[in-house]
Design goal:
The protein has one domain: Rossmann fold (3-Layer(aba) Sandwich), CATH 3.40.50.300. The chain contains seven helices and ten strands. The strands form two sheets. Strands 6-7-8-3-9-10 form a six-stranded mixed beta sheet, with helices on both faces. It has a four-stranded antiparallel beta sheet with strand order 2-1-4-5, with helices on one face. Helix 3 runs parallel beside helix 5 and helix 4 packs antiparallel against helix 5. It is globular. Bound molecules: adenosine-5'-triphosphate. GO terms for molecular function: ATP binding; ATP hydrolysis activity. Pfam families: ABC_tran.
Length: about 230
């Protein structure tokens, strides 16, 4: 089990008041499991992904990634975890503007010494990016940028892939194709996939679905569903 969250609490400052966003949240992900994270806008889904990525400090509770307790790590150690264990597809995608599509896809895999040319070629083909390899990000459509971000995150074969609404700009048939591919690739590489989505249709493609409500998760599909 490479992601375990125990009794996580998180407050945010809202004007003059502090507001509880997460209150005693627990989660365990099993290898090769694909998980959808749903919840109302503002319920804290992106904040939870930021906490798991070590991009926001843990106020109270525990997040363990591959046996390492994030709350005890330095910034340098956290960035090592992001490099070695995590793949992240942000809402903004964060492609490097001066690198073409191919270099963007290969960048993080090379950084973590996990570059595998055949694996990258397979991703490029499956995501329909062959004709765009020499393009710069500024010349791509929103949907193309998303597919490049997905290829880049999968290229490094991460243990855990965090994805924040990765299909938001794609049309329905493309969304379905991309989510299926993400789920298949995650399973093929024993990657745990945690995907934020507002679409129940897309969520149904995952093994498990959790709903974030009042700072805690409820399993609405999967082995822990009661
Ligand atoms: N650093 C911060 N300081 C203060 N408030 C914050 C901070 N980060 C997030 N918030 C607030 O916390 C709440 C949860 O935000 P978050 O982005 O995690 O929600 P979400 O569930 O991902 O929403 P959406 O589905 O709309 O993307 C929001 O009300 C947001 O404005």
């Amino acid at each position: 089990m490479s992601l375990v969250i125990k009794d996580l609490h998180h407050k945010i400052i809202d004007g003059a008041h502090s507001k509880k966003l997460l209150s005693g949240l627990d989660l365990k992900l099993n290898p090769s499991t694909t998980v959808a994270l749903m919840g109302d806008s503002g319920s804290g889904k992106t904040t939870l992904l930021n906490l798991i990525s070590g991009l926001e400090p843990i106020q109270q509770g525990e997040i363990n990634i591959s046996g390492q307790a994030l709350q005890n790590l330095t910034e340098t150690q956290l960035s090592q975890i992001r490099k070695n264990d995590l793949g992240i597809i942000f809402q903004q995608f964060n492609l490097l503007s001066s690198l073409n599509v191919q270099d963007n896809i290969e960048f993080s895999a090379k950084l973590s010494n996990r570059f595998d040319r055949l694996h990258c070629q397979m991703l490029i083909q499956n995501l329909g990016l062959e004709s765009l390899l020499s393009n710069l990000p500024a010349t791509l459509s929103g949907g193309e940028v998303q597919r490049v971000a997905i290829a880049r995150a999968l290229a490094a074969k991460p243990q855990i892939l965090l994805a924040d609404e990765p299909t938001g700009n794609l049309d329905n048939s493309n969304s379905e194709r991309v989510v299926r591919l993400l789920a298949q690739l995650a399973k093929a590489h024993q990657t745990e996939l945690l995907m934020v989505t507002h679409s129940l249709y897309i969520a149904q493609e995952m093994d498990e679905i959790y709903q974030l409500n009042n700072g805690r998760l409820t399993c609405i599909k999967g082995s822990k569903h009661v």
